[in-house]
């Protein structure tokens, strides 16, 4: 707790990538900060003395966390980060970000700088506005993405162990499509008047297409010279993107 005292503001969150396939390597910790210099001073106290920190990314200094402190957030906040904990951290604007991988940390920095976070989603904002205040704990679940991921995992499991599905896996396999319209679902604990209340809010939306925050990111070597051209991939059926930068390089960005 003393580690957080000099710099942390209100709100700490553990965020899992929608495409993380339930891997703790994809989790990141986001904490609101009230003093960026104090936050970096605190991170420097737990940085790895045996290994140099990575080069700054987009002018933001990155701290390599000492392995002995890698589980500090898991112990203080949630076991969701698993045994690996976090390895890298950086501060920008009014938040501190810690992640298990350097790639995930950089993606989070890009999301915040490019404003491609959930705050851009009107469905998310309208759903969150329906929750009570103040909040002691709140969890958001995208049922449509969860069903998609679990369905893929169950399909692979059935190839080898068709009779070893759990009750949840069996239900998802049989009835998962019924849950896909459930978009932004919030589970909240609200200490109203000193008494904890358990609240649930689910948004049932059949609007098409599904609102996407960000599917993927690719950094070009130079500024784009022409407007990007989206077109359907004849093999995968997904949308690929063709673009050219000011240095004359042509980019074909494709989902794999």
Can you walk me through this structure?
It contains six helices and eleven strands. It is α+β, with helices and mostly antiparallel strands. The strands form three sheets. It has a five-stranded antiparallel sheet with strand order 1-2-5-4-3, with helices on both faces. Strands 6-7-8 form a three-stranded antiparallel sheet. Helix 5 (143-160) packs across helix 6 (167-175). The radius of gyration is 21 Å and the shape is globular.
Radius of gyration of CA atoms, rounded to a whole number: 21 Å
So what's the oligomer here? single chain
What is the residue-mean pLDDT, rounded to a whole number? 80
Spell the H/E element sequence.
EEHEHEEHHEHHEEEEE
Helix-residue proportion: 10-25%
According to DSSP, the number of beta strands is: 11
Separation of termini?
42 Å
Helix count from the secondary structure assignment:
6
**β-strand amount:** 25-35%
Strand order of the largest sheet: 1-2-5-4-3
Question: In this structure, how is the largest beta sheet organized?
Answer: 5 strands, antiparallel
Q: Structural class of the secondary structure composition?
A: alpha+beta
